[in-house]
Design brief:
Helix content of chain A: 40-55%
Number of helices of chain A: 15
Shape of chain B: globular
Strand content of chain B: under 5%
Mean pLDDT of chain B: 88
Largest sheet of chain A: 10 strands, mixed
Order of helices and strands of chain B: HEEHHHHHHHHHHHH
CATH architecture of chain B: Orthogonal Bundle
Radius of gyration of chain B: 23 Å
Distance between the termini of chain B: 35 Å
Number of domains of chain A: 2
Largest interface: A-B, 42 and 36 residues
Low-confidence stretches of chain A: 1-12, 28-33
Strand content of chain A: 15-25%
Number of domains of chain B: 1
Oligomer: heterodimer
CATH superfamily of chain B: MetI-like
CATH topology of the largest domain in chain A: D-Maltodextrin-Binding Protein, domain 2
Helix content of chain B: over 70%
Largest sheet of chain B: 2 strands, antiparallel
Order of helices and strands of chain A: HEHHEHEHEEEHHHEHEHEEHHHHH
CATH topology of chain B: MetI-like fold
Shape of chain A: globular
Low-confidence stretches of chain B: none
Structural class of chain A: alpha/beta
Mean pLDDT of chain A: 87
Number of strands of chain B: 2
CATH class of the largest domain in chain A: Alpha Beta
CATH superfamily of the largest domain in chain A: Periplasmic binding protein-like II
Distance between the termini of chain A: 29 Å
């Protein structure tokens, strides 16, 4: 996904293009429905373009609420902006798509206005893990989209698809891997725990984490590239320069459909499923409109459109959608996914970050 | 033109605008950064105003000392490489016909229009196994098979020298153009070879310029954070990369600020040492 555009320059370009696009696309809808409107923050670039094209115009048609889409910068910069604006009583966007770690961090300062599921009748369609709750049970966010990070390979170099994440540890793959560079976006600790220690619960204790780090250190000689910038790895994967690694399932599928010699495999331990939530800033005045929007987005039909047009995996139960097997396989899998331990990236983030940086840099 | 000391407040007028710009875009942000570096980080949240030293304490470790040491070493190496390449190049350039000079300068300026991203990706393609320059060497029969030249220290260094080279030339150019040609002519008349004249007359005459250029390239290279990521392994990541990680991905502004303040202090210290060493050399 474009969530992880890694460089400052990239982000600026995306922002610039996003803002230009936003003003162009938002203008007619503002003119059409001046009375009701909603500012929606979406990751800039591909995501926002797809939403502007496939989702927002239909939403305005169906509800009469004009949408002004705002390109969110990546990382946690948007969370910081929302937080500081909320302190001043401002909302740069009413509803924003937020990562799970950002959801937890926002919870710590009560940034998210609690959502009322009585007004979101489609919320019952959601898989439980896509409802983000405050510790006291109030609902902080509703699953917007989800996506998978899987084991990807170059088909010219690997004739047979790998079947397990264990391939990352195989000494035969020395200096051949491309992996994500941050502990909080690669989720490799979870992969290690699921593959070798029976599940992500193994990370509950510090000893468990130490063990996972020690096991993960064995991967290091195999890694050619620790990437922050997706384009960097995608190019190398296509050319066979770096023939194996972790990458986004949907993007890899699109690249394969374009004729590139790449494939995405759901290992038997499962792909990594990451997701974004819709969350409402406590400074927003558009509470009613926000609920209408989140309800609209939680319809199985809309989730199916997202899967077909944007390539995201549905956050609602599969059987409610009309996705064919092929369409579902293009964005998801029935293999039980590895769900990242987002709680760790909140409670132990500095320690994990330090250990991780020392592991890969040291 | 006669120069007079400013008499009344109005005479300072022309200074007002640049001073304002300096305050708004440099002094205020930098002071904010210093203040934030003492704030209390709240894990899993943001930060609260406070006056604590924990951010600096975390930085004082062998791990970060190594990263800082590497960053400084890399920046110094880039500065030295750039100056070694650029001084002879610019000297020869100033001896060329005006038209040739213009073509070269326009070409160098156009390199400046390339962003770090484009430079990084271009070099990573040039150094790749599948499409890189080693394929040419294989075609010419120099090498038996193509191989990847990155990620490596050499790749990082090449990219950064390429990026800083135009700046180096542009800083050296005015000084070299103004260099009195009679100096070298005198040296030649007294029997020095062109190379000897260059090293015994041109280089010493330019000592201050060269020192200033070294410092400028050093500081320029110290801020690089994209090329080490694109062309190097994690052990080639500079402190700037780790600062970005903390600020953007960990939202740990206090720690990022503390690292940045530390980097600025070390840089200023090194620059001061260089300038002082230069003064002493002059006095001797």
């Amino acid at each position: 996904m474009t969530e992880f555009l890694k460089s400052g320059v990239n982000r600026r370009a995306v922002l610039g293009a996003g803002l230009a696009g936003a003003s162009m696309l938002a203008m007619p809808s503002i003119l059409r429905a001046q009375d009701k409107s909603l500012k929606v923050g979406v990751y800039g670039g591909y995501f926002k373009d797809s939403f502007d094209k496939n989702i927002f115009p239909e939403f305005t048609k169906a509800t009469g609420i004009a949408v002004e889409s705002v390109a969110e910068p990546t990382g946690e910069a948007w969370l910081v902006q929302l937080e500081q604006a909320a302190k001043a009583g401002q909302a740069p966007a009413d509803v924003s798509m937020m990562s799970q770690v950002s959801m937890l961090k926002g919870q710590s300062t009560d940034l998210w206005a609690p959502l009322d599921t009585a007004k979101i009748k489609n919320a019952s369609n959601l898989l439980d893990r896509f409802v983000n709750k405050y510790p006291d049970g109030r609902i902080a966010g509703i699953g917007a989209v989800s996506w998978y990070i899987t084991l990807v390979t170059n088909t010219d170099v690997y004739k047979e698809a790998p079947t397990s994440w264990e391939a990352l540890w195989d000494p035969a793959n020395a200096d051949k891997l491309g992996l994500l560079a941050l502990v909080s976006n690669s989720f490799l600790l979870e992969v290690t725990a699921k593959t070798f220690f029976g599940g992500t619960n193994a990370l509950d204790t510090d000893e468990g984490l130490e063990k996972a780090f020690a096991k993960l250190a064995e991967v290091k000689p195999n890694v050619r590239l620790w990437y922050r910038d997706e384009a960097q790895f995608e190019q190398s994967l296509k050319s066979g320069e770096i023939p194996m690694g972790q990458y986004y399932h949907d993007v890899t599928g699109l690249a394969a459909a374009d004729g590139n010699p790449v494939r995405s495999t759901f290992p038997k331990e499962g792909g990594i499923q990451d997701s974004g939530c819709w969350a409402l800033s406590r400074a927003s005045q558009k509470v009613e409109e926000a609920h209408v929007f989140i309800d609209y987005m939680s319809q199985p039909a809309i989730q199916a459109i997202l899967s077909r047009k944007v390539g995201t995996s549905p956050t609602v139960k599969r059987e409610l959608t009309d996705l064919t097997d092929a369409e579902f396989a293009a964005v998801s899998s029935d293999i039980e996914p590895i769900i990242p331990r987002y709680d760790l990236y909140q409670t132990k983030s500095d320690w994990l970050n330090q250990k991780w940086t020392e592991l890969i840099v040291g | 033109m006669r120069r007079e000391a400013p008499q009344k407040l109005g005479d300072y007028g022309p200074l007002f605008f640049p001073a304002m710009m300096l305050i708004v875009f440099f002094v205020v942000p930098f002071a904010t950064m210093i203040a934030v570096s003492f704030f209390q980080r709240q894990q899993g949240g943001f930060y609260v105003p406070a006056f604590v030293f924990s951010n600096y304490e975390r930085f004082l470790s062998l791990f970060f000392a190594n990263v800082l040491g590497f960053s400084l070493m890399l920046a110094i190496t880039v500065a030295i490489c750039c100056v070694l390449l650029a001084v002879p190049f610019t000297y020869l350039l100033t001896r060329m016909a005006r038209k040739v000079q213009i073509v070269w300068l326009v070409a160098l300026l156009s390199v400046l229009s390339l962003s770090e991203v484009i430079i990084g990706f271009a070099w990573s393609t040039l150094f790749s196994r599948t499409a890189g320059i080693t394929n040419l060497l294989v075609m010419m029969g120099v090498m038996s098979e193509a191989k990847a030249l990155l990620p490596s220290f050499g790749a990082v260094l090449t990219g950064m020298v390429y990026q800083a080279f135009p700046y180096t030339v542009l800083v050296l150019y005015p000084a070299l153009v103004r260099l009195d040609p009679t100096l070298t002519e005198a040296a030649r008349t007294l029997g020095a070879s062109p190379i000897r004249a260059f090293f015994t007359v041109v280089v010493p005459a330019l000592r201050n310029t060269i020192t200033a250029t070294l410092i400028m390239v050093f500081i320029f290279a110290l801020g690089s954070y994209l090329l080490p990521q694109l062309l190097g392994r994690p052990q080639h990541w500079t402190l700037s990369v780790l600062i970005t990680d903390q600020a953007i991905y960990q939202s740990n502004m206090p720690f990022a600020a503390a690292m940045a303040v530390f980097l600025v202090l070390v840089t200023l210290g090194l620059v001061a040492l260089t300038v002082m060493a230069g003064r002493k050399g002059e006095a001797a």
